[in-house]
Amino acid sequence: FLKAVYHLYGHDFIDYQLGTLKRRIQTHAIQLRVDSFDKYCEYVLEKESNFEEMFKYFSINVTEFFREPEQLIILKEKILPYLSSYAHIKIWYAGCSTGEKVYSLAIILEQMGLLHKTQIYATDFNNEVLQTAANGSYELETLDKSYENYKEYKGIQDFDNYIIKNQYYMKIKDYLKKNILFFNHNLAIDKSMNEFQLIICENVLIYFNNALKDKVIKLFDISLCTNGFLMIGKNEYISENSLTNFNEYTYNKKVYQKCK
Prior knowledge:
Elements: H1 2-9, H2 18-32, H3 37-46, H4 48-58, H5 69-83, E1 89-94, H6 100-111, E2 118-124, H7 127-135, E3 137-139, H8 143-153, E4 163-165, E5 169-172, E6 180-184, E7 196-201, H9 210-223, E8 224-232, E9 246-250, E10 255-258
Parallel strand pairs: 1-2, 1-7, 2-6, 7-8
Antiparallel strand pairs: 3-5, 4-5, 8-10, 9-10
């Protein structure tokens, strides 16, 4: 079924964690009131609009402003001061989802006086979430958690300085968007697009099997300059065999520095 999906629609889920895909197929099948896997396959492969329905279930988008603030503190105190010596900083945020963490990164760079010389490439394979990210508009009900995370991060300015609020939504101020490029990139099938000093890919690898993880780490390896940094989600694991060109930069914080 996954091979047929790739052949028809060009999206490769073959090396995703099988248990995760099964659960999401089951959820979608229940919504469709489809009672067998064969019927589900027929439905999805019948036409592209049906696949797009499934795609939304396969695309996992859980994020928030200043999520995992302890990692962002390492970014602020160790990694970005190191990168500040570069004349121009290039950062790839892979698997950016709806963009809250990308804008968090832009806020950190602005507070450190580095945003003006930084280009952020924010990518995802889901065009719908990329549009949300590019718009930079979010429901106001998420603001309490944003305040909580930002307080734990210990930002030096009021979070409200970076947003515009109305009765229902908050919107990121336009100047924070100027150095961010949002575009489609699929880690499973697409190639390297530039050389970066920092790659951030949080809570994405957890959905890949070991073969696809190894492939993606190789992609990150060739996309990083020597001494560049890779930051992954705190609950993710990469085998030592995949990290032969990396040194662990911070103990148990999932930050690695390319050594060769």
